[in-house]
Amino acid sequence: MAHIIPIKGFGDDRGSLHVLQDQIPFDIKRVYYIHFADETVRGGHRHHQSDQVLICISGSCLVYLHDGQKESEVLLDAPGKALFVDRKDWHTMTATSPNTILLVLANTFYDVNDYIDERYPNH
Fold first, then answer.
1. Out of 38, 47, 57, 58, which residue is the most buried by the measure of CB atoms under 10 Å away?
2. Model's pTM, two decimal places?
3. Could you give the residue numbers annotated as active site?
4. Which of 116, 89, 103, 118 is nearest to 3 (CA)?
């Protein structure tokens, strides 16, 4: 089930430092980021094996989630807020501000066969 993970941050008048240590609930196998050119919808899938953590490191991003039972939306609008996305969560991501950058951490290496593009029935 998707849930928010707070990322430890330290700040002063020079800015903020956020540390990813012990908060990620899996061993990280893949790291990538999406730089949105506009409000294009990305994602539109779920996974057989891959769990992910999404962190909007610049701008803001609206994440739509559906786990087969319920739907929800989460606004990622601060680098100190991460979203755990379970493999069963069909999800999309949409930038809600210019120059949005979404960092993704995954527990598996890329495998095209891990993706399930079909939405859950009746939703």
1. 47
2. 0.93
3. 45
4. 89
